[in-house]
Write a structure and sequence with these properties.
single chain; alpha/beta; Rossmann fold; seven-stranded parallel beta sheet; 18 helices; glycosyltransferase; Kdo transferase activity; structural constituent of ribosome; Kdotransferase
């Protein structure tokens, strides 16, 4: 890991050309800081990217409300995650990059910040980091933890690395019993099963209501349904274009307006070029005013085939705008994206065959009637068409989404209770001797 550090610098330089955020404070990636830390005794929360930040945002503010004296150090691995967390960073908090998992970088990071307790969100367990934290007396917890069967099998094949890493954790809050079983088999302390905090996604009436006004204005002027390809990953847009070409003639007139929202912002221009090359008429979200300023559909919208969602932080508005959504990441063997935000917006969703990253949430959504399973994108288009032609089925799916959230909520409060107990236990423990 130490020898690979020059390659990491090259990677960051390349990523920085597309996303300048990767060029910010590069020295922190190697555990080097220009100024001393303002204090010690941090609650350190590592949320690597956008999904983990959104999950942490569901419980960290609740913890801060209960204990305002606790200072939070936020760390991340992606520019998207760092940007998404900035509104959560209070004046007394701090934000930094998680260092590269090399001994020197990790040692400098721990010595600089001197956290009292570390919390890793969902899956981010690094061997050097975990073992050095244990040696330095920093309890490290894995929160909202998940480990699908495929990842578990890979970890078991590399158990010479994975078992010491997972065994160095001080505690685990798992999403499901299956996650707990797999994590325990890798050597973690007996995990507590508290559920998935993402089911506690808060209701935001203002953005949702604003997007609904745009939707009502659209339907008042056009009979076209609005369908969403949500959080699509590389390769899925091309597969969707091919499936839509095969089926477009079978859809009733008028054809739907498609919302295509790529998962990663660095691909916005690439996907726009792909859609235009396919002969589709494309309107970009960035060409529209804010939802709160509308509804103000431009004249070209009525003839557009696709509205490209080239914005960040508006996924709930896209779901509110759509009649039915297709879940990105589930039509390629990538494990799917988080579908709970769709349920919170009352949007029925069609799942592809690959939802192993969110297996429990997918199963619960199917059982509640908030989702349907498709074998591939062609099948997904047929299911979406059937839903759009059946108002009663759409109403039932929206009611199922509401039941889904009611049945599986509460994990955020359980997480807060467990983390606060771990914080108090760490405060009462004798300080560990500093290691060289």
């Amino acid at each position: 890991m130490t020898a690979l550090q020059p390659l990491l610098r090259l990677k960051l330089a390349r990523r920085g050309r597309a996303e300048p955020g990767y060029l910010h404070a590069v020295a922190q990636r190697f555990g080097r800081y220009s100024e001393p830390a303002p204090a010690d005794g941090w609650l350190w929360v590592h949320a690597v990217s956008l999904g983990e930040v959104r999950a942490a945002a569901l419980w960290v503010p609740r913890l801060q409300a209960a204990r305002p004296d606790i200072r939070v150090l936020w760390t991340h691995g992606t520019a998207t995650g760092r940007a998404a967390a900035q509104p959560l960073v209070r004046q007394q908090d701090a934000q930094a990059w998680l260092p590269w998992d090399a001994p020197g970088a990790v040692r400098r990071f721990v010595r600089h910040w001197r956290p009292r307790l570390g919390v890793l969100m969902e899956t981010e367990v690094w061997p050097t980091l975990a073992q050095h934290c244990r040696a330095a007396g920093v309890p490290l917890w894995l929160v909202n933890a998940r480990l699908n069967e495929r990842s578990w099998q890979r970890a078991m094949r590399l158990r010479c690395l994975s078992r010491p890493a997972y065994g160095a954790l001080a505690g685990v809050l798992a999403q499901t019993p299956d996650d707990a079983r797999r994590l325990h088999a890798l050597g973690t302390p007996a995990p507590q099963v508290v559920g998935n905090v993402k089911f506690d996604v808060p209701w935001h009436p203002d953005p949702w209501a604003a997007a609904q006004r745009w939707r009502l204005a659209w339907r008042a002027a056009s009979d076209r349904p609005v369908l969403l390809l949500a959080s699509s990953r590389e390769g899925e847009e091309a597969a969707w274009i091919a499936a839509w070409r095969r089926q477009r003639a079978t859809w009733p007139h008028p054809a739907p307006l498609w919302l295509v929202v790529p998962r990663h912002p660095q691909r916005f221009d690439e996907v726009h070029a792909l859609l235009c090359a396919a002969g589709l008429r494309v309107l970009r979200r960035s060409a529209l005013p804010a939802w709160s300023e509308g509804p103000a559909w431009p004249p070209e919208a009525w003839h557009a085939d696709v509205l490209l969602g080239d914005s960040l932080g508006e996924m709930s508005a896209y779901y509110a705008l759509a009649d039915v959504a297709l879940l990105g990441g589930s039509f390629a063997p990538l494990g799917g994206q988080n579908l709970i935000e769709a349920a919170a917006s009352g949007c029925p969703i069609v799942l592809g065959p690959h939802t192993f990253n969110f297996a429990q949430a997918a199963a619960a959504a199917l059982e509640a009637g908030a989702a349907r399973r498709a074998a591939d994108l062609d099948d997904a288009l047929r299911l979406a068409q059937a839903w759009c032609q059946d108002d009663a089925a759409l109403r039932a799916a929206r009611a199922g989404a509401e039941r889904l959230l009611q049945q599986h909520g509460g994990a955020a409060d359980r997480t807060v209770s467990a983390v606060l107990q771990a914080w108090d236990d760490a405060a009462a423990a004798p300080a560990a001797p500093e290691r060289a």
